[in-house]
Amino acid sequence: MRPLRSVAVLLLAHAAAIAAVCALPAEPAVAASAALDRIKETGTITLGYREAAAPFSFRDREGRVRGYSVELCLRVAAAIQHELGLRQMKIEWLPVDAATRIDAVTSGKADAVCGTTTVTLSRMESVDFSLPIFVDGGSVLVRGQSRLVRLADLKGRKIAVIGGTTTEQALVRALNAIEAPAVLVPVKDAAEGMAALAQGKADGYAGDRVVLAALKQQATNGAKLEFIGSDFSYEPYAIVLPRNDPDFRLLVNRTLAALYRTGDIDPIFQRWLGGLGKPGPLLHAMFYLNTLPE
C-alpha cells in the first residue's frame, strides 16, 4: 500500500497534466475553406464554363460568358463577395470541355465549373457537387425522314455522342438492355455532333434533351429534325466544386436554396430556358425538394 503522501503527489501531477491539455488552443471544429481563403487573398474567383453548351453555358458573339448555369454561378460569386467582405472581386472565366471540366477543379485551376455536368458517384471520388440546378434526360436527335422513332430503331445505326460523358455510358446501357447496339461515333462537342448529323456521317446525335432542343432551334435545318420517342437516362446537373471543402459548398448551397425558396429562380429559368417549354413535373419537384430551410 502506497503512503498517502505519494498518492497525493501522483494526483497533483495528474491534475497538472489535465490542466495543461485544457490550456492548449482548441482546434477549429471545421477546417478553413481553401477556396474561400484563396478567393479572399487574391480578390479573384475562377469559374470554369462550357463554351458550346447553350443555353446553360456559352460565350456569345461579344465574348461575354452567359447562360443559365453561368447566371447561377454569378449569384454564387456575389454571395461569396458579400460573405468575405470584399469591396471588389474579379471573376475570371476558364473555358473547359467534357474531358477537362473535372480536372479543372481537382487541379485548382477553377474554383467551380458552371455548365451541364451530371452528378455521379464516380465523379464524387474526385470532386464535390452543389445542390442540383437542373434535371434532364438523354435523348437522340434524328432526321425526320429517317423513320427512327424508337430507341430500338437505332440498332446498327451510327449515333454521334460526346465521348467520355454520362450520356455515352447511359446510351450504351440502354441499347444493350434492349439488344439493339448502335455504332457510336465519338465527337468532341455539340457542333461536331450536329455537323455529323447534317452531313449524313451519323444517323443521330445523342445528348441531353434540353441541349438538343436548343441546338434544334438554332440549326438551319431544325424543322427537319426530330427526337426519338423517349429519353434513355436521368441527368441531374450541378455546379462542380472542390472535394473536402464543406464551408465553400455550404455557401454555394445556401445561395441556390435561397433562389429556389424565394422564387427568384423563376425569372432566371424564363430568361434562358423558357423558350424551350415549361418546366416539367420532374424539374418542379427538384426545385421544391431543394428549398432547404435555414
Relevant terms:
294 residues, D-Maltodextrin-Binding Protein, domain 2, 10 helices
Description:
The protein is α/β, with parallel strands linked by helices. It has helices spanning 4-23, 34-42, 68-84, 101-106, 166-177, 190-198, 209-218, 246-262, 265-273, 281-289; strands at residues 44-50, 52-53, 57-59, 65-66, 90-96, 112-114, 128-136, 138-143, 158-162, 183-187, 204-208, 225-227, 235-241. The strands form 4 sheets. A 5-stranded mixed β-sheet has the order 10-9-11-8-12. A 3-stranded parallel β-sheet has the order 5-1-6. Strands 2-3-4 form a 3-stranded antiparallel β-sheet. Helix 3 (68-84) packs across helix 8. The longest helix has 20 residues, at 4-23. It starts with a helix and ends in a 5-residue tail after the last helix.
Largest sheet properties: 5 strands, mixed
Helix content: 40-55%
Shape, principal axes of CA atoms: elongated
Low-confidence stretches: 4-13, 15-31
Proper CATH architecture of the largest domain: 3-Layer(aba) Sandwich
Strand content: 15-25%
Order of helices and strands: HHEEEEHEHEEEEHEHEHEEHHH
Can you identify the CATH superfamily of the largest domain? Periplasmic binding protein-like II
In the residues, how many domains can be counted?
Answer: 2
**Rg over alpha carbons:** 25 Å
Do you know the CATH topology of the largest domain? Answer: D-Maltodextrin-Binding Protein, domain 2
Structural class: alpha/beta
Query: In what order do the strands lie side by side in the largest sheet?
Result: 10-9-11-8-12
Q: How many strands?
A: 13
Mean pLDDT: 89
Distance between the termini: 60 Å
CATH class term of the largest domain:
Alpha Beta
Tally the helices. 10
